[in-house]
From TrEMBL:
This is NAD(P)(+)--arginine ADP-ribosyltransferase. Transmembrane segments: none annotated. One of its GO terms (biological process) is response to antibiotic. Belongs to the Arg-specific ADP-ribosyltransferase family. It comes from the Eukaryota. It comes from Zapornia atra. Its EC number is 2.4.2.31. Keywords: Disulfide bond, Glycosyltransferase, NAD, NADP, Nucleotidyltransferase, Signal, Transferase. GO terms for cellular component: cytolytic granule; extracellular space.
Length: 273
């Protein structure tokens, strides 16, 4: 059995203070990442086609953010398992992150999309469920996080279709409903970012199933603006918000980011895919 912990190596970047700088890098980054991962390119192509069929679903998200959410939910071909494994595993150094983490664009777009959706509505928490096939260990009172983009559902029955080895009952205050952007809207998905932390309030076992209850506690990120720091800040200081390494109390979300249109990025990505 694996133990639920703080996923200390997780690529938990919130891009605090550098989102506009990251935005300028997206087109070139996406081109190079497509070249190294054909499944990623195919998933993006299918998600783009679905977005074009549906049309815009939100007044606060740009096309590339909506497409990223759709790409994340696509099951065939599936990208989210490989993506989340890479997010959770992380990289031991910024240099390795720059060279070997091949989902910088998807990570950034998902992170910024969840923040924009959260900031556009009164800050609220959700009671959600997550089912996985394997048994996990946890101890009441521990602070833990998923350390990846964790798919959950507002519907417990739906969550259990994904596995009954461990069933999570979660109060999340940074997860956001993404039903409108999913290939499977009936799943009532709420997507939790890697940096949200939880208190384990209960662990019970019945037969082959472990039930773990989690209560929203804080936000905690070890990394912040890693790509921008490596590219622009080697020879000059950059003033970014510090990472929340001490896991402060749960706070209110920040100001909504103003996004400029990236139609060139969208069209270029579609052509390359």
């Amino acid at each position: 059995e694996n133990t639920l912990d703080m996923a200390p190596n997780s690529l938990d970047d919130q891009y605090l203070g550098c989102r506009h700088m990251m935005e300028k890098e997206l087109q070139e980054l996406n081109r190079t990442e497509f070249e190294t991962n054909s499944i990623y390119a195919e998933v993006w192509k299918e998600a783009t086609a679905e977005w074009q069929r549906r049309g815009p679903q939100s007044s606060v998200l740009k096309p590339e953010q909506e497409i990223a959410l759709m790409a994340y939910t696509l099951e065939t071909p599936s990208l989210y398992k490989e993506f989340n494994a890479a997010v959770r595993a992380g990289r031991p150094s910024r240099e390795e992150y720059m060279l070997k983490f091949q989902f910088k664009v998807l990570h950034f777009l998902l992170s910024s999309a969840l923040r924009a959706l959260r900031d556009a509505q009164p800050h609220k928490c959700y009671h959600v469920f997550r089912g996985v096939s394997n048994n996990l260990n946890a101890k009441p009172g521990d602070t833990v996080r998923f350390g990846q983009f964790a798919s959950t559902s507002l519907n417990s029955v739906c969550a259990e279709q994904f596995g009954t080895g461990t069933i999570f009952s979660v109060q999340t205050c940074y997860g956001v409903p993404i039903k409108k952007f999913s290939f499977f809207p009936d799943e009532d998905e709420v997507l939790i970012p890697p940096f949200e932390t939880f208190e384990v309030t209960s662990v019970t076992r019945k037969g082959n199933t472990v039930r773990i209850e989690l209560r929203a506690q804080a936000v905690c990120n070890k990394y912040n603006c890693e790509f921008v720091k490596e590219k622009y800040c080697k020879n000059q200081p950059c003033d970014f918000s510090a990472a929340d390494t001490d896991c402060p109390s749960l706070n209110s979300p920040g100001q909504r980011v103003s996004w400029d249109p990236l139609w060139g990025f969208l069209l270029a990505a579609t052509a390359l895919a």
